[in-house]
Write a structure and sequence with these properties.
88 residues; mainly alpha; 3 helices; 86% helix; elongated; transmembrane; membrane; transmembrane helix
């Protein structure tokens, strides 16, 4: 049994939460859809990569996938809020 399994699951679930919640909240509140349409594919790719990273058996591969997922989700959220600031 891998000692980092619980940590990978916690980080993965947190990343999926960070990918989904800002996009859903922004989609319900904003009038402009451009930021949401740009951020959704990036955050979806990040959430999918986080889910794959959570299920990986190799800790190094899992860490690499979770790191890439975190970078994609950060990019998607920055695009969401940055485009929202540019539109208004």
């Amino acid at each position: 049994m891998d000692s980092t399994r619980e940590l990978r699951w916690s980080v993965g679930l947190f990343l999926i939460f960070l990918a989904v919640v800002p996009v859903l909240g922004s989609a319900m509140v904003y009038d402009a859809w451009l930021p949401v349409l740009v951020a959704v594919p990036i955050n979806t790719a990040g959430a999918a990569l986080a889910a794959v990273g959570m299920g990986s058996r190799d800790p190094d591969t899992s860490a690499r996938r979770l790191l890439l997922a975190a970078a994609l989700i950060l990019l998607g959220d920055a695009a969401l809020y940055g485009l929202r600031a540019a539109v208004t």
